[in-house]
Amino acid sequence: MKEILGGKGANLAEMTSLGIKVPPGFTITTEVCDYYYKNGKNLADEVKTQINEKLAELETKMGKKLGDSADPLLVSVRSGAASSMPGMMDTILNLGLNDESVKGLAQKTGNERFAWDSYRRLIQMMGNVVLEMEHADFERILEHAKESKGYKYDTDLTTDDLKELVNQYKAKIKEKKGIDFPQDPKEQMMLSANAVFNSWNNYRAIRYREINHIVGLIGTAVNIQAMVFGNLGDDSGTGVCFTRNPSTGEAKFYGEYLMNAQGEDVVAGIRTPLNVLELEKQNPEIYKELVDTCNTVEKHYRDMQDMEFTIQQGKLYILQARNGKRTAAAAVKIAVDLVNEGLIAKDEGILRVDPNQLNQLLHKQLDPVSKAEAQQIAKGLPASPGAAVGQVVFTASEAFQWTADGKAVVLVRLETSPEDIDGMHSAKGILTARGGMTSHAAVVARGMGTCCVAGCADISVDEVNKTVTVKDSGIVIKEGDYLTLDGSDGSVYLGKVATKDPDIGGDFGILMAWADEARKLRVRTNADTPHDAAVARNFGAEGIGLCRTEHMFFEGERIKAMREMILASDVEGRKKALAKLLPYQKDDFIGLFRAMEGFGVTIRLLDPPLHEFLPTEEEDIAELSKEMNVSVQQLKEKISDLHEFNPMLGHRGCRLAITYPEISDMQATAIIEAAIAVAKEGKEVHPEIMIPIVATVKEYSILATRIKEICDQKIAAAGIVLEYKLGTMIEVPRAALVADKIVEAGAQFFSFGTNDLTQMGAGLSRDDAGKFLKEYVAQGIYEYDPFQVLDQEGIGELMRIAIKKGRGVNPDLKIGICGEHGGEPMTVEFCHREGLNYVSCSPFRVPIARLAAAQAVVRENLKK
Ligand code: PEP
Ligand code: MG
Questions:
Q1: Which partner from 111, 226, 401, 844 sits 20 to 30 angstroms from 45, CA to CA?
Q2: What pLDDT score was predicted for residue 850?
Q3: Hey, which residues does 840 pair with through a beta bridge?
């Protein structure tokens, strides 16, 4: 009944009807709030009558009367809407205290200080919430009182100090509002209820609902509940417990408590709480009641519970129960255990783990204890998860060399470039000062499963003098110094922090097997090397959705041949250089086909603009000039020839193949020769050749015709039967709009390159936009960074158009996604809904996509 009672009210009512000892109370419904606003902020008389009736019932139940001068009942008045809005609305505690009842409370509890402290807190809360005075009005008086006595903590205040504070608070109210602090407890209660209703529409509550897309609620409920106290002597206490261990998931009762204390004392850390298991020795009866209660609540809610309890003079009360927060490891274990215990079905078990959380389990992690103690010096973007500890180096070649010498290194760069590939592969971690979540460093690091913190604006990197300076603190890190990176949250630590290895236990495997049974989407991987392909296959990848061939041109001798090709002045020269690359490419593809035996392997033709293969630094240019026997002058001319103002919109992708068809000829030859070779080994191969950056049908048909001719001729010459597919990426908006025609021209598959589709569709630079997108997200212009979570409304619409047009011509058209979004759970769900055949993502995201794809099915079934 959340809609009517609010989350808190419904939960308290439900526990009460389960027979759990919750402090008694009643809830004024959200409908009353709705009426309150429609009735010029007035409560109906009937509601007032009902409140009085319910209060009388509560008084009978508690055997005390509100405001009684001998033994007063105290109540709390709390907000609670159908959706949780933590801290956004108001709460008033200790209602029912006045100049008389405070004395009664003091006498009854034998704790005068407690009574007066409760009273001064009530005045402060009412002054602030009901009378709308500044919090600071009271804080100033309190601070002044402490200062004048030389106290450090609120707890140092004596009973007399508190009495004096009450006087001063009341005087302040009189001064500011011209009224006396209300002494009638019923008036206090009604005023507080109105104040809670008013807080439904305070600025922060409205903003919270906007930001979190909470719509369609009619208002907040108001919960009026008897107060219980854990600080009424040695037979009282308070604590927090979990029905299972929230770090490991182990099915063992877990928690902490303090006797003769209030919740605040536990939180403030003034006293050290005891392990809840101690309670068994201290008070076995209460302990047993607590454990039994926790079991009942867990069984009822069918999930691990995080509960707050108070013992008031030997009586146990449960104040709150909610599904407990947990680590990834605990989430997996609890989900599997709950299914095995028969508490939930497999489908529900699948929904119980947040796919993104799995990241924590697949990579090396920082040891939580050491992480808490470590010196954090900066924070960047969490570009690729995991942890890295190593000595700082500033160039990719040093990263390679130092690693070869047996050292662990962290590669620090302003930003990385494709040339850095070897060094990036060697480094334990990568830190860049610039670039966003889809920057080169981020994409490549995620692909390799290497920890990476990108776009770390807190540091400045001096690549010449080889230093990193932390802007805030001025700390300087030199080559060889140790740094630790946490790629899961983007933090950078000075020195070495202890790490621990990934923990993929049996429960993980069980959960993933359930996910595989449920899901309909296939999950492929983006991988460029047999090693990455093998890693991905181990994580459950069913083929390669994107092999970026350009990464193969940087290693060792290959870059020389590539540069020779670029610098050649005619077709013959280019062909000669390409002939040198052919055997390398063929070998690479053989490795990939073998690693993915039986599955589809999509290989993309060369994509980036050629200038990316040429050096930019003076000394590198001079070195290349010697190596190639070309003058520095000529080299510089070539580089300047290739310069483009907007290289991402420039001479790249199929545009290269159109102008230099000999490049795609060589690649097609290498792919098909490799496939023939592996097929001849008796292995099942499914090559898929993909043309990037297609915008027009002609681009596709010209290249497809040429590639097909080469492939068919090679296969015929080999005398075997080998099926291959030809298709295109959909990453230029125009291609989405003419998708039907591209299929008519023979395309057998589409793969959405949502990185470029987002870049070109939204007109946002994937390399630079990160800087202001944060602000865009903060202002709600985009709900999420569109390079991380697919913009379903806009870019998603381009995809829907392409799917409809493409499948309109060929209903069996195979469609996948290979942009960074392919491993993002919300996007995976979108892809499932839109009927894609597969998603493709970096190896370490494969399990995430598998689980997300399964959840999409389970949610769809639930809706049905
Ligand atoms: C894309 O654009 O989404 C894509 C996968 O290609 P790349 O990231 O290599 O440009
Ligand atoms: Mg692209």
A1: 226
A2: 98
A3: 524
Per-residue pLDDT tens over the stretch 169-188 = 999 999 999 999 999 999 99
Contact between 301 and 321 (Cβ < 8 Å): yes
- Alpha carbon of 706 to ligand 1 centroid (Å): 24
How many Cβ atoms are within 10 Å of 457's Cβ, its own excluded? Answer: 14
Among 818, 821, 845, say which to mutate for ligand 1: greatest number of ligand atoms within 8 Å of CB.
818
- For residue 327, what pLDDT band results from cuts at 50, 70 and 90? confident
pLDDT at 268 over 80: no
Cα–Cα distance list, 150 to 137, 158, 265, 740 (Å): 20, 13, 21, 80
Q: Which residue has the tokens 């949502």?
A: 754
Distance (Å) from CA 344 to ligand 2 centroid: 43
Minimum-distance ligand 1 atom for the alpha carbon of 756? 2
pLDDT over threshold 80, residue 129: yes
| Cα separation, 364 vs 486, whole angstroms | 10
At residue 802 the predicted structure's pLDDT band, cuts being 50, 70 and 90, is very high
Q: Which residues are catalytic?
A: 440, 818
Contact 664, 706 (CB under 8 A): yes
Ligand minimally distant from the alpha carbon of residue 795: 1
Residues with CB under 6 A from ligand 1: 546, 548, 607, 731, 753-756, 818-819
Q: Alpha carbon of 106 to those of 159, 162, 247, 568: distances in Å? A: 11, 13, 42, 95
Q: Is the pLDDT confidence value at 270 over 70?
A: no
CA separation (Å) from 433 to 357, 453, 456, 463, 473? 26, 9, 4, 11, 16
Choose the most confident range, by mean pLDDT, from 156-160, 192-196, 197-201, 696-700. Answer: 696-700
Question: HEC profile for 737-786?
Answer: HCHHHHHHCCCCEEEECHHHHHHHHHCCCCCCCHHHHHHHHHCCCCCCCC
**Closest ligand by atom to 526 CA:** 1
Residue that the structure tokens 């540069």 belong to: 563
Helices 632-642 & 558-567 angle (0-180, nearest 10): 80
Query: What φ, ψ does residue 750 adopt, rounded to 5°?
Result: -120, 145
* pLDDT tens digits along 218-242: 999 999 999 999 888 788 999 989 9
pLDDT given at position 346: 97
* Burial (CB count <10 Å: 0-12, 13-18, 19+), residue 433: buried
Q: Are 553 and 505 in contact (CB under 8 A)?
A: no
Using alpha carbons only, give the angle 781, 785, 786 rounded to the nearest 5 degrees. Answer: 90
The set of residues, in sequence order, having a beta carbon less than 8 Å from that of 31 and lying 6+ positions away, is 4, 218, 219
* CA 481 to centroid of ligand 1, rounded, Å: 35
Cα torsion 647, 652, 653, 656 to 10°: value is 170
Q: What are phi and psi of 317, to 5 degrees?
A: -130, 140
CA 820 to ligand 1: nearest atom: 3
548 CA: nearest ligand 1 atom: 9
Interior CA angle at 693 toward 690 and 694, to 5°? 80
What gap in Å lies between CA 46 and CA 215, rounded to an integer? Answer: 29
Helix, strand, coil shares of the chain as percentages rounded to 5? 50, 15, 30
